[in-house]
Amino acid sequence: MSFPNNFLWGGATAANQTEGAYTIDGRGLSNLDYMPYGESRFQVGTGNLDPKSLPEDTFFPSRVAIDHYHHYKEDIALMAQMGFKVYRLSLSWSRIYPKGNESKPNQLGLDYYLNVFKECRKYNIEPLVTINHFDIPMYLVDEYGGWKNRQTIDFYLKFTETVFTHYKDYVKYWLTFNEINMVLHFPFVATGLTFKPEDNREQITTDVIHHQLVASSKATQLAKKINPDFQIGCMLAAGSYYAQTPRPEDVWKSIQDSRESYMFSDVQVRGSYPNYYLKQIEQQNLTLPIKDGDIAVLRDHTVDFISFSYYSSRVSSAQPDAANQTESNIFASEINPYLETSEWGWQIDPLGFRITINEIYDRYNKPMFVVENGLGAVDNLTETDEIHDDYRIEYHKEHIKAMSDAITLDGVELIGYTSWACIDSISNGTGEMAKRYGFIYVDRDNFGKGTFRRIPKKSFYWYQEVIKNNGENLNEK
């Protein structure tokens, strides 16, 4: 088992799941500040319920989250103790541009992230920055229609120019959008979209997709002008689709399901819309809102590397059975009887991780970065303040082995691995704190109660050894 000597080991977080401090130092409200805890969360996330119609006493967990805003020094010190080479984090758009349309940025927001990057540099940790991680100022959504409106591209580019310029000496690796394909599954979370009954959802979604893809390419163009050494990546919610049976219809459905996600990276990596997508929108009587210059900017400003999240593989069927689907409600999938399942219905498939890595590399032949991979589970704190999360160690061990096989046996190029999430945070899918992913426990419950105390778990010390030995000692606990 051999990882490259310069392999970047680390962990990932997102501003809207960790920072909190939602009105501190001039920050404006964003879409995730309106994602409720409870039964209505899925309806809001899928764009079927306007969150502003919810009762006044609704609890919105991202507004306080784990208060990383006031604990970032402690948190980064713990990451350094684990030996992190890289820390993936995102920028809160509304912390830097509270409404999104201002002519000048919020200096306190800029200062905050500069201090975060300086803290990373103090420990020789490379920041990997997601510019937009399920985040848009609600003012842009309310007043402009958000990503439905092409003008949002300009607001986004002003934001990107600001952060590229201010942090050009601190950040090398950038991602333009987190899991850009999630607009198909969780549109309010991904882009701030809420639909009315009379809306043409498919056309609106097509417009939003094009606007974000153009914004991504223009941001890549801008980045290279500001600092040619910047490395710009796309980011996909990935996971291979298996055919439920050898029936040709099931195999074809698995290809169609895969294409649905890969269309985004096809554009960002190859520089043009694939023919299968153009035919699809033609058959659905949809139109791409292409303007002068769009085709050229997509073609000429592709990404340097591909990043992706992987949690599970999926199963496709031409005749889906609602009674035989996984409990994971964001990506519908038939149950795979050969896999174990997490407490939240995610099926665990380390070999599927290797399959996915190879599938992406075969498709694009570009360097890749695994920027999310982890297990959400209930962790129990003992009377002696210990968390014995052997299940998390086992999950990561098997997935890191699969990643190693992809490098050493299959010859793929991987830049690094950032586990999700390195510290307990709010689950985007469920809004829970009980669904814990981290190597660091945070004393916070589903209802916002707790001290915010940080406690390293057993997996913290295991991952510390993994990094120290560059992935050579996975069997040690």
Helices and strands in order:
Layout: E1 8-12, H1 15-18, H2 41-45, H3 68-82, E2 86-90, H4 93-96, H5 107-122, E3 126-130, H6 138-144, H7 151-166, E4 173-175, H8 187-191, H9 201-226, E5 231-238, E6 241-243, H10 248-270, H11 275-283, H12 294-300, E7 305-310, E8 314-316, E9 340-341, E10 347-348, H13 350-364, E11 368-372, H14 390-408, E12 414-420, E13 440-442, E14 454-456, H15 458-468
Parallel strand pairs: 1-2, 1-12, 2-3, 3-4, 4-5, 5-7, 6-8, 7-11, 11-12
Antiparallel strand pairs: 9-10, 13-14
GO molecular function: beta-glucosidase activity
Active site: 372
Keywords: Glycosidase, Hydrolase
Any descriptors?
477 residues; alpha/beta; TIM Barrel; eight-stranded parallel beta barrel; two-stranded parallel ribbon; 15 helices; 38% helix; globular; glycosidase; GH_1_N_CS; beta-glucosidase activity; 6-phospho-beta-glucosidase
Summarize the structure.
The chain is an alpha/beta fold.
How would you characterize the overall build of this protein?
The chain is α/β, with parallel strands linked by helices and 477 residues long. The protein has a single domain (8-468), classed as TIM Barrel (Alpha-Beta Barrel), CATH 3.20.20. The chain is 38% helix and 13% strand. The chain is built from 15 helices and 14 strands. The protein has helices spanning 15-18, 41-45, 68-82, 93-96, 107-122, 138-144, 151-166, 187-191, 201-226, 248-270, 275-283, 294-300, 350-364, 390-408, 458-468; strands at residues 8-12, 86-90, 126-130, 173-175, 231-238, 241-243, 305-310, 314-316, 340-341, 347-348, 368-372, 414-420, 440-442, 454-456. An eight-stranded parallel barrel has the order 1-2-3-4-5-7-11-12, surrounded by four helices. Helix 7 packs parallel to helix 9. The radius of gyration is 21 Å and the shape is globular. One of its GO terms (molecular function) is beta-glucosidase activity. InterPro entries: GH, GH_1_N_CS, Glyco_hydro_1, Glyco_hydro_1_AS. One of its GO terms (cellular component) is cytosol. This is 6-phospho-beta-glucosidase. The active site is at 372 (nucleophile).
